[in-house]
Design brief:
The protein is an all-alpha fold. It has one domain (6-68). It has 4 helices and no strands.
């Protein structure tokens, strides 16, 4: 939570395995909330439809499906 990478923490603590470090790593509820907020803001941009798909819901869905089909 202090910004130090988990692998660096592992090395400094002398743990051979990252799983041992993870066992003793606990995130505070506030830290988890901030992470969810960051991810949520990124997801909003991922799921926003491009303007060319905003004609109407049915044609937008059809165009999206057609654009992701493997040819």
């Amino acid at each position: 939570m202090a910004g130090v990478e988990i692998n660096t923490t592992r090395e400094l603590l002398g743990h051979k395995d990252i799983w041992m470090t993870l066992r003793y790593s606990h995130l505070s509820p506030d830290h988890k909330k901030r992470a969810v907020d960051v991810l949520s803001s990124k997801m909003d941009t991922i799921w926003t439809l491009d303007t060319k798909f905003k004609k109407d819901e049915n044609s937008a869905v059809s165009e999206i499906i057609d654009s992701v089909k493997v040819k």
